[in-house]
């Protein structure tokens, strides 16, 4: 998750955003556009990379080309939920990179262990937005294969598409097409968030 503190920006409620979708993994190949960059310093963002919070067991599993199960993901999602809550409490704006493929996963990010799998449970939290990155399978596959030094096999992409439940408007979600350069995608996310502050 990244924090966003605009020194000269108008006052607004803190905003947290999760960058989600199968395409989010492909975007990570260039997350250095923000991470430790001049742009990150300008915005005051501290980027939280969701992949950094997977257990060793999950990392080893993905490296072998085995998809994670819901049970594998629960401890990871709860850690990210804790980060989101901490940023909300500190009144900092933030962004986290996390696939959050299913509605149930997004609910856990928002509500932690208290989330309920019922149709009438809340679907959103004020000030928390999901940026849903999407694009053609082939493009995302090419970007994944171009990544260096990452444990997740590109062979897992099909399982991510099979698992994917795109977010709906009631989840405070907006879509971002990744068929553009990484700086352009990042700019689209910034613009979408700015009109929601």
TrEMBL record:
It catalyses: D-gluconate + ATP = 6-phospho-D-gluconate + ADP + H(+). GO terms for cellular component: cytoplasm. CDD domains: GntK. GO terms for biological process: carbohydrate metabolic process. One of its GO terms (molecular function) is ATP binding. Pathway: Carbohydrate acid metabolism; D-gluconate degradation. Keywords: ATP-binding, Kinase, Nucleotide-binding, Transferase. Its EC number is 2.7.1.12. Belongs to the gluconokinase GntK/GntV family. PANTHER family: GLUCONOKINASE-RELATED. This is Gluconokinase. The lineage of its organism: Eukaryota, Metazoa, Chordata, Craniata, Vertebrata. The gene is IDNK.
């Amino acid at each position: 998750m990244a924090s966003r503190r605009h020194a000269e920006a108008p006052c607004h409620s803190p905003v947290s955003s999760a960058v989600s979708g199968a395409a989010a993994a492909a975007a990570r190949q260039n997350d250095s556009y923000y991470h430790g960059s001049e742009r990150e310093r300008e915005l005051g963002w501290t980027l939280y990379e969701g992949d950094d919070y997977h257990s060793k067991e999950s990392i080893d599993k993905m490296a072998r080309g085995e998809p994670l199960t819901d049970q594998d993901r629960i401890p990871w999602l709860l850690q990210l939920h804790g980060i989101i809550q901490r940023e909300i409490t500190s009144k900092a704006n933030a962004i986290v990179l996390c696939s959050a493929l299913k509605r149930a996963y997004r609910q856990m990010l928002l509500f932690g262990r208290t989330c309920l799998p019922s149709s009438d449970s809340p679907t959103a939290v004020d000030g928390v937005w999901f940026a849903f990155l999407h694009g053609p399978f082939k493009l995302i596959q090419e970007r994944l294969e171009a990544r260096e030094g990452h444990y997740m096999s590109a062979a897992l992409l099909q399982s991510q598409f099979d698992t994917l439940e795109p977010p709906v408007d009631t989840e405070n979600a907006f879509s971002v097409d990744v068929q553009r350069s990484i700086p352009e995608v990042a700019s689209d996310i910034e613009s979408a968030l700015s009109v929601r502050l």
